[in-house]
Design a protein that fits this description.
481 residues, alpha/beta, Aldehyde Dehydrogenase, Chain A, domain 1, Aldehyde Dehydrogenase, Chain A, domain 2, 7-stranded mixed sheet, 6-stranded mixed sheet, 15 helices, binds nicotinamide-adenine-dinucleotide
Length: 481
Amino acid sequence: MTIDYNSLFIGGEWVQPSSGTRITLTSASTQERLGSVPDTSEPDVDAAVAAARRAFSAPDGWPSWSAERRAAAMHGLADQLDARREEMAHRVSSQNGMPISLSSNGEAIFPAMLLRYYADLAVRVPFEEDRPGLAGGTSVVRREPVGVVAAIAPWNFPQVLAAFKYAPGLAAGCTLVVKPSPETLLDAFLLAEAVEASDIPPGVINIISGGREIGAYLVEHRDVDKVAFTGSTAAGRMIGEVCGRLLRPVTLELGGKSAAIVLDDADLDLAKIGQSFFAATMLNNGQTCFIGTRILAPRSRYGEVVDTVAALASSLTVGDALDPASQIGPMVSQVHRERVEGYIAKGKGEGARLVVGGGRPKGLDRGWFVEPTVFADVDNLSTIAQEEIFGPVLSVIPYTDVDDAVRIANESQYGLGGSVWTTDPQRGREVADRVQTGTIGINRYMPDFGAPMGGVKASGIGRELGPEGIVPFQQLKTIFC
Ligand code: NAD
């Protein structure tokens, strides 16, 4: 059964798109047609932004609601999402190839969790504070919502990354136009159904489709007050330039090429570390921004580390994303698989030693599959160690001592995630403190939604999640009394 939508969710209603063109969604695992949605044109963006503006500025608009009332509506939306968990996981995995075990425990669960977290935070943390003035009087410091937000998400974790924006945005009192990626729209339209069924007022969340041109039009729209973007560094740079010119607040969550630093005392027993190491280096078929795809191994145990990583990669079950047994699903699209395969060819061409994988898995004739691949003897300055591949391709890079490991970890344009593997947690902390990155784990890597997440250098500007994640959706106003 295919799923076809004929309208866009704007102003709390399903409205006719202004053009007749459509976007077709296909299965990454089978290449079959899954459904279609209308494409979005500029007049539709105008309508969505206008709806968000009305919902923001009306006398009884979203920001005028008490935090308690907003929180109740957000809890209601969370309930609506919970009621659609199974369908949500199915739609996400069918489209982008995310193993269903991951989408069921992430994409289908975390958005509701985030809505509840930020709803409760909005009630708990006052939006206004009276401060005694240093030279007398009182300063009232108000945290007001920034306004209409353009929330632009990528395809790899489409629901979670949209929720990173709308959950704190709603809590702050903002209204939003959400633009998902063209590869993952059926899940976005299911989110629209959940919003429609909830008590979130019309126009507070609008959901459009479209590709990068529509994204660019939305970013530059005269009535947008803030941009919250997750995606590639290349797109982030363009968006940053536009927002700089417009002096428009922007958060940019971009690419990564993180280091998993294996110290010389690390426990390499896959029975103990296999699952965490897999999650930290190959989660979601390698289509994850924060994973440590550069494995830094001490020369004293280099062969052992290569063998361990190779054993892990070759033990993985590769298959249809909807099969609960699959640990690695397909790449999101044909174009993306070609890109990943291009990097594998480049790795071979640049002299790295292919240890396992490198091809297409046997027996999987349909779908955009790539074998989990491990390269050894990789030079950290080579292309496969410097550029984000966004597939199940790991590079094992030798280092001489801890200083050398830290130097190599930091020898990257990116700084998003990372991990340190050691039996001495204190030593792990000391190394983690020296890595230039926004987040890093010791013997594991998994974001904590209660703590800030984001990158340094070309991995982005600003942070999402945690109490800090609400700040970019607020502006401060001081009233001297
Ligand atoms: P992408 O940059 O191609 O697209 C992301 C979104 O931005 C899509 O909705 C796209 O339509 C839109 N877009 C593209 N160009 C635009 C422009 N100039 N103006 C406005 N909108 C534009 O990225 P992708 O291929 O969908 O996602 C993969 C990338 O996202 C990877 O680089 C990955 O590392 C990154 N990512 C980062 C994080 C993080 O938290 N830092 C999380 C997940 C993914």
